[in-house]
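Appendix B, record 7
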Amino acid sequence: MNFLARRPRVAVALFGPQGQGSFNEAGLQGVQHALAAGHDVTPFWIAPRDEAARTAAVEQLCAQGFDLIVAHGGQGDSPVSHALQRWPSQRFAITQGSLQAPQVARYEVQQEQSAFLAGVLAALYSCSGVAAHFSGERVRPGLQGRAAYAHGLRVVGWQGRLLTQFCGHQHQPQLAELCIHTMADAGADVLFAMIDGGRSGATAACRARGVAQIGNVLDWVARDPQVFVASAVADSGEAIFRAVADFARGELALGRRRRFGLEEPALVRLQLRGDLPASVRVQIETWSHRLCTGEVVPDNEYAGEEWPVPQEAVSA
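Structure tokens (predicted):
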């Protein structure tokens, strides 16, 4: 395609209620970065969780003639795969996705690296011997993050218990709050929460129960240091910007994947609260180096027990 005559038109699909969630907040920052760089980018919010509704929304974007559609997050894998059946020539990019197709480029920040480091920290931090992981939808990036967190716990000799749960929804604060209370009841004193719009509920429960939280995507330590002992930063919005910039140059990674990790600490790192001891920081730096060199590769699969969603949350 000749882009000399005009700027390519790009749509960015954000899955979730408008204005909710740190993952989508990072996505919007990526859109804003692209706009500031002079690209023609428009964000679209796709609120429904139903797969058919998501697919229909993506197909509506295909019908509008965008040169590129960027689906933000693993939630885009299924609707894009279905949309390609009707629109086989449409170019797509998916951030944090796993769909492989000739017309799909995958752009990914390696959140599993910072999730691994979150596990190392949780093992060093916990006094109760019970660490927790919490997330919403069981999409591939979330599953990989959970596996990496569990791996990080193990590498430093964790002998305690891991509670891990996918509640089924990324954007329900009350549901998240109920779930975290049950984990606190079971003794969890540190929680890695890979949650989006439900973050406020998880944080309220942590504050009420004295559970130290490790956030993800954004720097939550800067926002709420009383609750957050660390944050597994993974700037997924930058993946949007780089996909758009590559497309404008005619270098989009169609049929391939571009990955960014700890070698770019502005994008991927474990942000620690300032009061953590030097011995903990040394451990995190050591394991960060091992990840960067490839000496250690985070697990992709988890085979342990799963913590049940409380019945009162299921029936609510």
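Remarks on this record: The chain has eleven helices and twelve strands. The mean pLDDT is 94.
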